[in-house]
């Protein structure tokens, strides 16, 4: 993430300098996604999810999501192109990048029928991206840290200036991100898994286009499982809970056998779809941004 503009510049110039960066466009995209998600949530709560404004908010949220991840993918591609002698990744390696995966899924949800749950993982990500950008860029641009001469014994000759502590708001945001990041990523993983069952239900009742959506989203979830320790942890927790239920003596033997069959087929499917053997060792893609 690029540093904020120099504190010596006037506020208007600092804001203009910040607004001219691609990173600011990325921030605006995430902020737009948050506002649209909130607007759609209100419509959903009041049973107006089919209204014109609700549909507009839903689609705009995914347009913003596609724009933000598109910016990250573009910047990564441009950085590779500028690096001398660095070869561009192949198709499988490119699809292994988490940002590419979320970009493609944002486009899929944009053109699919509405599933409110699909917005939630993107919304959680946007909360932390907006918070991080606000702390690292927006606050220092609006209120730069004041510089004071260092008087400590270890100060360098000439009394080089030393920055004061960051703003209280930035410190609060930093504590929030540090304290809730892991729990929120586990929430995202659980939502993505639950969303798979939601799409499966739509396919089971033969909703139009649901089988194609199920196939695409299954590929996405499989990729997330191979790359994200949070998704692996969420799956593990789910399996443990079902194991505990099945282990109850009141559970019919047929149910136990069916669950063991499901687990065996799941392991076989996981092994058969391990793209690591095809994508040069299975290096994890970049963290979603």
Brief digest:
By secondary structure, this protein is an all-alpha fold. The protein has helices at 11-19, 22-45, 52-82, 91-95, 98-111, 119-142, 168-204, 210-227, 229-246, 253-272; strands at 147-149, 161-163.
Task: Describe, in plain words, how this protein is organized in 3D.
The protein is mostly helical. 69% of the residues lie in helices and 2% in strands. It contains ten helices and two strands, in the order H-H-H-H-H-H-E-E-H-H-H-H. The chain has a two-stranded antiparallel sheet with strand order 1-2. Helix 1 (11-19) packs antiparallel against helix 6 and helix 2 packs antiparallel against helix 3 (52-82). The longest helix is centred in the middle third of the chain and has 37 residues, at 168-204. The chain is globular, with a radius of gyration of 23 Å. The termini are close together. The relative contact order is 0.11.
User: Helix-strand pattern, N to C?
Assistant: HHHHHHEEHHHH
- End-to-end separation in angstroms reads 11 Å
What is the residue-averaged pLDDT? 85
Strand order of the largest sheet: 1-2
**How much of the residues is beta strand, in percent?**
under 5%
- Principal-axes geometry comes out as globular
What are the key terms here?
single chain; mainly alpha; 69% helix; 2% strand
Q: Layout of helices and strands, plus pairs?
A:
Elements: H1 11-19, H2 22-45, H3 52-82, H4 91-95, H5 98-111, H6 119-142, E1 147-149, E2 161-163, H7 168-204, H8 210-227, H9 229-246, H10 253-272
Antiparallel strand pairs: 1-2
Helix pairs in contact: 1-6, 2-3, 2-6, 3-5, 5-8, 6-7, 7-8, 7-9, 8-9
